[in-house]
Amino acid sequence: MATRHSMLLIGVSILLYSRWWIMEFKTPTFQKVDNPASFVDTLFSRVMNYNYIYALNCWILLCPIWLCFDWSMGCVPLLSFDYHFIDPRVLAVLIFWIILITLIFRAFNSNLATSRLILMSLAFMIVPFSVASNLFFRVGFVIAERVLYIPSAGFCMLVSLGIHHISNYFKMRLLLYVSIFFLLTANISRCYQRSLDWKNERTLFQSGLDVCPLNAKVHYNLAKTSLNHTEAIAHYREAIRLHPEYEQAMNNLANILRDEGNISEAESLLRKAVAIRPEFAAAWMNLGIVLSNMKRSDEALECYKTALIHRKNYPDCYYNLGNLFLAKNKYAEAYAAWRQATTQKPTHSIAWNNMIVMLDSIGKLEEAKSMGLEALNGLPKDSALHFNLANTLGKQGHYEEAEEHFKQAIKIRPGQALYHTNLGVLYHRWKRYTLAEEQYIMALKINQNLTNVVQNLKNVQKLISKMNLTLQ
């Protein structure tokens, strides 16, 4: 027995040392929103809040209707104490300790078999949970249902022991068994119901809202997964109201408001976000986009540069920086920025396409062609790349190559009127008028309002008529 205990102790010690080694012998750093109770100033308030969390964990074991994917950010409001008010939730702490002390008392004042069962049950509940109790070190959560997996075994043992004792004193055993059956059925049904909550992100976040309406993160996630802008804005605003320093919610809300044309509020939110977290690279980039839309190029440039200071590997920021340089007709700088974006992320399709279109527009057709071919090595199924490369090849007079890339673009992404229009223009220049007519007609079937295509179609039909008359 002693040897077995020694081996167990050595094994646990090795595991603990390995864990500390992985963590580089440092405790992790958490924010206040992760575990507000551990940041309470006074020892008394901190202890009382910890005990209230213990009571809530026990309540979740007893009545698992309160299950939530995240318990941070105000989900469990802190107990408040002052001279004129005592939080009524203190009663939950009192009840928790009365029950625990009663169980410990019974464990030492019952027969040997019962005492051992109660002590084993309590050990299963308390020992595994102790590492998440904030007693030894601060943890990064308020309540985490995963830490109740092993304690639930001890809880089940206590319930079984209680049922056994009740059956010894309760004469109507049939009623007892029926009651237990209905209790099990109810819990199985709840387990099935809870499993359905995990069907997708949306149902999971909605279930969290039912349990923790004061959790800013729940509202943030609901907004993030919403396809309705009005609903998303409402949830983001509620998240910010509940947690006024929620910089990620400010960033996302600002992006929606920018897309809806509310530029001034978007700017205000992003400035608040970077003031709260100066190293927030995404917010700096989005602020740059907003300022660029407001034609405040110099300020936008500073924002992009700040974003790149905080996140060196940031292809999206380089892409937006390139757009800013393009707007100022700084073609070399734009090219360098987009080139950096594609170096960091070779699949950054928009940056590749922008380079091709820009080089084409300033007459550097051979460079545009080379860029398109290089891009297609990594993105062979990108319809826009085939389309833009085809336009360049057409200007160079490489009609057969251009035709092939236009066809590839249409095959990858059918139903694009512009693709058929430009292929029609290619055939028109190539003097393949019948094929041009077919493509113009295809484009007009997709979009009847293309006046330039209507005119092109009339022109090519006149040419076809002249050719037919000549042949006659």
From TrEMBL:
At the top of the EC hierarchy, this enzyme's class is transferase
The stretches annotated as TPR repeats are: 247-280, 281-314, 315-348, 383-416
Establish whether keyword Secreted is in the entry.
no
Q: Does the keyword Membrane apply?
A: yes
Pathway entry: Protein modification; protein glycosylation
> How is this protein positioned relative to the membrane?
Multi-pass membrane protein
InterPro entries the record matches: O-mannosyl-transferase_TMTC, TMTC_DUF1736, TPR-like_helical_dom_sf, TPR_rpt
| Reaction catalyzed | a di-trans,poly-cis-dolichyl beta-D-mannosyl phosphate + L-seryl-[protein] = 3-O-(alpha-D-mannosyl)-L-seryl-[protein] + a di-trans,poly-cis-dolichyl phosphate + H(+); a di-trans,poly-cis-dolichyl beta-D-mannosyl phosphate + L-threonyl-[protein] = 3-O-(alpha-D-mannosyl)-L-threonyl-[protein] + a di-trans,poly-cis-dolichyl phosphate + H(+)
Subcellular location(s) of the protein: Endoplasmic reticulum; Membrane
Q: Which residues form a coiled coil?
A: none
EC nos = 2.4.1.109
Q: What task does this protein carry out? A: Transfers mannosyl residues to the hydroxyl group of serine or threonine residues.
Protein's name according to its UniProt entry: dolichyl-phosphate-mannose--protein mannosyltransferase
